[in-house]
Each structure stands twice: as C-alpha cells, then as structure tokens.
Design a protein that fits this description.
The protein contains 28 helices and 22 strands. By secondary structure, the chain is of the alpha/beta class. Helix 21 links the parallel strand 12 and strand 13 (485-490). The radius of gyration is 30 Å and the shape is globular.
Length: 687
C-alpha cells in the first residue's frame, strides 16, 4: 500500500519525483478549471420566461445553480479514486469521487458526485466484496493542495491493512464550525445515508459515532436523489439551540446544498414570546401527550348548538333551514374529524347548498354562482359566526392557562386537580403580551393552531438531539413531516431534560412515525478510547439498557484527571497547556461557573469567547470556547478542559439528568480530555 505524507506544511515543498502525484495534481487543476467553466457557462445564461413570474423563477434557478457550482480552494474537489476492474472486451475505467459533479468541455465526468450510485463502491468495496473495483485510492490534502495518496488493492481474497490517510482525516484538528465527513463515511453510516426517501430512520448513536453528520449527509443525498420532489416540499433541519445550528450550518452548503432550512423547536413554535423556563414538574406535565386531548376539547368547546333556524332573504322570497336540519349539518361536519377552521369554512357552503335544494324544490333553477352568493350572504355568515365562531390559537391557550374554570372543564377526566393546579398560571396575566409563556406553553399553542388549520408538511425533516424532546414537542415536529419522512438522531444516554424520551419506540409514536427503522451506532471514530471508557462508567446510571460504545481511536495520553485545591485557577493552567497542541479547545464548565472561569482565563492571558453569549459569525472560529455545560451537547473540540464534574451533576434537579449531562460533556473531546476538580468525582467515576 504505497503512500505519501498525509499532510505537509507547504505543498510546494513536497517533492514531485513521483509521476503519479504529479498526474493527480494535474487532474485536480483540470477539474477546478472545469468547475470554473461550468459556472461561467451558467453565469452567461439569461432568464427570459413567458411572463414575469416565470422569469423570476428562472432567475432563482440560475442563482441556485451558481451557488451550487461555487468552488472553495481550501476544500479538496475530490478525495478518492476508483479503478474499476476490466470487463470482457472493455478497458478499465477510472472514477474520481468528490463533493460535486464536474465535467470537461465534452461532457465527460472529471469528478463524480459522492452521492451517485456508482460512487457507493468507494465506501462499500472490500477485498471480500470488491464490487468490480480493482483499486481504491485515497488522497491527502493540505489547504486544498494534493500532498499524498494511498492505494488499496481489492483483488478478491487479498488482505489489506488500515488506511493511514483515512485515520489522518478522521483525526485532523478542527477549528470553527462542523465539517462534512464525506471522505470518511463508513459502511454502516453509508447504509443510513442512502436510506430511501419513504423511510423514516431513527439513529441511536453513542458519542463520536457521527450521527449528526450522518443525518446531514442523508439530507444531502436525498436532495440529490429526489431533487424535484424535495425542491417543492422542502427539507428542514431541527436542532436543540441556535449555537448548535451555527456549528453545523456549513455542512450542507459545503456539499453543494443550500435549500435546506434550519430551526429549533422554539423557533417552530414562535406564535408567543417565551419568557420563562418551566421547572421539572410543570415541564414534564405540559409536555405530556394528554395535553393534546385537553387542547382538542378547548378548541371544540367553542362550537355552539344551533337554537334558531337559518333564514336567508333572496329577492322577494325568504328561504328557511330549520334548526334541526342545520344542527344535523353541524354534527356531520364535526364527525368528519376535520380541522376546526376547515369545518367553519365548509359550514357556510353546506348551509347554502341546503338553501339551493329548497329553491329547486320550489321550481327555481339556481347554479353554483347562486350557492356562492348565498354562502357569502350576511345572514349565513352571521349564523355561522354564532354557531361555529372563529378561533385564535393564542387566545385559546391564554384562556386555558389563565381561567381555572375553563381548564377544569377541558381537562375533566384527563388531569387531576393537583395537575390542573400545577399547569395553570399562578398569577393572572393582564394580557397576552405580558403572559408568562414557557416553551411548553408555546408548543401547546402550536398544537391548538394545528387543530384549527393544518400545518404544512415538509418532504423530509432531520431532527437532532431528539431524546430531549417531550411528547408534545415531538408532535410539533411530526406535524412538519406528516406526509414526508424523517431522520431522527439522538442518544438516550444523553437525555438531559426531565421530559425527555425513555425509549425510541415511544418517541417515534409521538412523532407519528411508529414504523420507523431504528439503527444503532456504537463504533466511535471521534472520541479516543480512554475518554469513551472513562465516560462509559456513567452508563449504568445514565442509560442501563444501552450497550457501551467502543472506539477505534487508540491514542495514548488522551485522558488527564487531576484534583487540585483551586480548580478554577487550574483551568487557566490546563488550557494554556493544551494550547500548545494543534486544534480547537473547549473549556466546559458548570453554568454557574462561567463568570469565574472567564476571569481565570483572562488572568492566565488566554483569549476566548463564551459560547451562547457571542452569537457573531466569528465566534466559532475562536481557538478557545468557554462552553456552559447546558450548551455542550452536539459540539466537538480537539481538546476539552472540563471543570468540576460533581457540580455539573448537581446543576440539574434530578441526579440521573445530571449524570447524563456529564456524560455528554465528557464526550466532546476528539483528541484529549483534561478533567480538573476540587470536589470528589461522582461515584461512577471515582474509581
């Protein structure tokens, strides 16, 4: 397996004695020129549609195509090559695998998109199953320049060793936002990435298994394989917080996909301003699925029994629909199970139709225009408003939480008296603008809004950190993919909310996808073995039913646990020590210790930013991030300095939640973990 150095400080100093390396560099240069030619050709097109709307749509399509053809000279245009075996009467074919498709002037492929079917062999071919591949080549790059290559012979039965370049790419220091893993996708990850659009897939992934990256790459693959359908219906990525979304925000654009939207549950349910955080007891209650039934009662309680006949004057005659006939129409619409708002819209048409039947019986010949006119008439609109009044979702929930009698009426048999007391606002709100809305309340408003008008569905939703969502939150996300599919990502051992999921079948039921495929990833590629073994001591408390993760990373010196008299001051020393190594540094601390730690870092002369406090675009490019423990989940740093594990556990109301929070914090390290503490370690770690 010949290889050249995986990295080089200056590509110009790499010797060109190897003609293969020179040829590969030439192909890279020609491919970049081909991409420029393709983009120039698109830029030269003019949008001339048959009308203004068509012209604007064409302009938008050309703009998207231009964005997709942008080249980043710091990112390799291709990362691998396949030499296919010679077939009967056919010469061997050579394919370069990269992030996007590039052709020459004649239309012949110079780089094949990694999502193309023929490129799958790059990730799946082996000596046991060559998939018609004779040789696989991986490339090493430094700042976009090709510096190395490595070959694997895949002749059936031939044994091959581990890939040094693959290991170097996995362990490459990281700084700034999350990057794609397109060059290092493993076979078990590839199966999930290429799952069909109709399938909802749930990935239970231990730390470092790449579940987030797998979910984003699946979105990119689906946008490639089902471009027309998903361009109409849309793809949505739902993350736990805005810091996390900023961290993953560059992955899809780097893969040439800019059409996916990104949001959080709070942003999805933004009809009211969230002003407070629920405590564990109320947060668990307002997130229970029983609240959906309470919301349904609250909405439909506005329906009134007709007590008067409908009388419609038209011309010289008055047409009458008796109250019992009108009541039958209302009952029939209610029994359909349709949305409240849709039923109100249909009611006027059904009443107008009843009037038309009476006109026909009297010998008249009304048409559809007459029915529409009757439906829009003042008597019909007034009658409908009285019997089937319009409903405002915010007003409904405001009344539900602020009016104890209304809450008791809607939750009779569903909530106990103590639960009603816990759910209701403790102090009367003077108006909706000053109401003490929590995130759970906002999700309840979203539930009511869907009962009134159906929520539009996306073609596909990627939901990350799903284990932290309540049943009502899962229902809110599920409404966004009711006619589409989803990729659900999470780790039950990292469920850090009192209302989080206890099992995936239960969570998927609330999401509306009970038939989803559940895949488990336990082989870690990011977190070193010493670190994952140390963190896994917490699993018997955090998630007793989960298999402990394993790591393919065997580097030594990755774990340092030190006890000292002044742990906060020691953080500055530990941070300066790891700054001598390449890569990013995350200083993970209990939320209450953020101010003290920033002062200690200032005293130690360590430049840093505080995650969550600085939302600027440059914040993620800082070398050192101070990370509150509640924001650490989902992030990765080359080196992590973690302060006071016992305080992270104690920072949560429930111990099991604190242990899960600590487990998530300990597994943010990609290269090394330094644990600094004064207080004794939690029991599972004390050994």
């Amino acid at each position: 397996m010949p290889a050249r150095p995986a990295t080089a400080p200056d590509p110009d100093t790499v010797p060109d004695a190897d003609p293969e390396l020179s040829q590969e560099r030439d192909h890279l240069a020609r491919s970049r020129a081909g991409l420029v030619r393709m983009r120039t050709a698109v830029a030269g097109l003019s949008a001339q549609g048959g009308d203004t709307v068509s012209t604007e749509r064409l302009k938008a399509a050309l703009w998207h195509r231009m964005r997709a053809l942008e080249d980043d000279p710091g990112v390799p245009l291709f990362f691998g090559r396949l030499d296919l075996a010679e077939g009967p009467g056919a010469a061997s074919e050579r394919l370069y695998i990269g992030r996007r498709h590039v052709t020459d002037a004649a239309g012949e492929p110079m780089v094949v998109d990694w999502r193309a079917g023929i490129a799958r062999a790059f990730y799946r071919a082996s000596a046991r199953e060559p998939m018609e591949v004779r040789q696989r080549r991986r490339f090493g790059f430094s700042h976009g320049a090709l510096t190395a290559y490595e070959d694997e012979q895949l002749t059936a039965g031939q044994q091959t060793g581990d890939s040094a370049l693959l290991e170097a790419e996995i362990e490459r220091p990281r700084l700034g936002p999350m990057r794609d893993i397109v060059a290092t996708i493993q076979p078990e990850q590839d199966d999930i990435v290429r799952a069909d659009l109709i399938d909802t897939v749930c990935v239970q992934g231990a730390p470092g298994t790449g579940k987030t990256a797998v979910g984003l790459h699946r979105a990119a693959w689906l946008l490639y394989a089902h471009r027309e359908q998903l361009s109409r219906q849309g793809v949505l990525v739902v993350g736990p917080n805005t810091s996390f979304l900023r961290y993953i925000g560059d992955v899809l654009p780097a893969l040439g996909e800019i059409d996916a939207s990104q949001t959080t549950v709070e942003q999805l349910c933004d009809r009211v301003p969230v002003r407070r955080a629920d405590g564990p007891a109320r947060g668990r209650l307002v997130g229970e699925a029983r609240l959906a039934a309470v919301a349904r009662r609250a909405v439909w309680s506005h329906l009134r029994e007709p007590t008067e006949a409908l009388v419609v004057p038209r011309g010289s005659r008055r047409w009458r629909v008796p109250s019992y006939d009108a009541a039958a129409i209302v009952t029939e619409l209610r029994a359909r199970g349709i949305r409240y708002g849709a039923g109100g819209a249909l009611l006027s048409q059904r009443l107008a139709h009843a009037v038309l039947l009476r006109m026909e019986a009297a010998g008249e010949s009304p048409d559809d225009r007459v029915q529409d006119a009757v439906a829009r008439s003042r008597p019909v609109r007034a009658w409908c408003k009285q019997v089937w009044p319009a409903v405002d979702p915010v007003r409904v929930v405001f009344r539900l939480l602020g009016d104890r009698a209304f809450l008791a009426e809607c939750s009779d048999g569903l909530l106990s008296g103590d639960e009603q007391q816990l759910l209701a606002w403790q102090h009367a709100a003077r108006g909706r603008g000053s109401a003490p809305w929590s995130l759970g309340d906002a999700v309840l408003v979203d539930e009511v809004a869907d009962l009134v008008e159906r929520q539009a569905s996306r073609g596909h939703v990627v939901l990350d950190e799903a284990q932290d969502l309540s049943p009502m939150m899962l229902r809110a996300v599920g409404r966004r993919c009711s006619t589409g599919s989803a990729t659900v990502l999470g780790d039950l051992a990292q469920a850090t909310t009192p209302w989080g999921a206890s099992s995936w079948p239960e969570a998927l039921e609330h999401l509306g996808k009970p038939a989803a495929l559940v895949e488990e990833l336990t082989r870690g590629f990011r977190v070193p073995a010493d670190v994952i073994a140390f963190a896994a001591r917490l699993l018997p408390v955090a998630a007793p039913g989960l298999a402990p993760p394993t790591s393919v990373r065997r580097g030594s010196g990755a774990l340092d646990v030190r006890r000292c008299r002044d742990a906060v001051a020691e953080v500055g020393v530990a941070t300066r020590t790891v700054l001598a190594r390449a890569g990013s540094v995350g200083v993970v601390v209990p939320d209450a210790a953020v101010r003290a730690v920033t002062a200690a870092l200032d005293a130690a002369g360590v430049a840093h930013v505080v995650l969550g406090a600085d939302e600027s675009a440059d914040a993620l490019d800082a070398r050192v991030d101070v990370v509150p423990a509640t924001l650490a989940k989902g992030l990765e740093f080359d080196h992590v300095v973690l302060l006071e594990p016992a305080d992270i556990v104690a920072g949560e109301v429930e111990r099991v939640v604190g242990v899960r929070r600590l487990y998530a914090c300990l597994t943010r390290a990609v290269s090394s973990l330094s644990v600094v503490h004064t207080r004794p370690l939690p029991d599972p770690l004390a050994g």
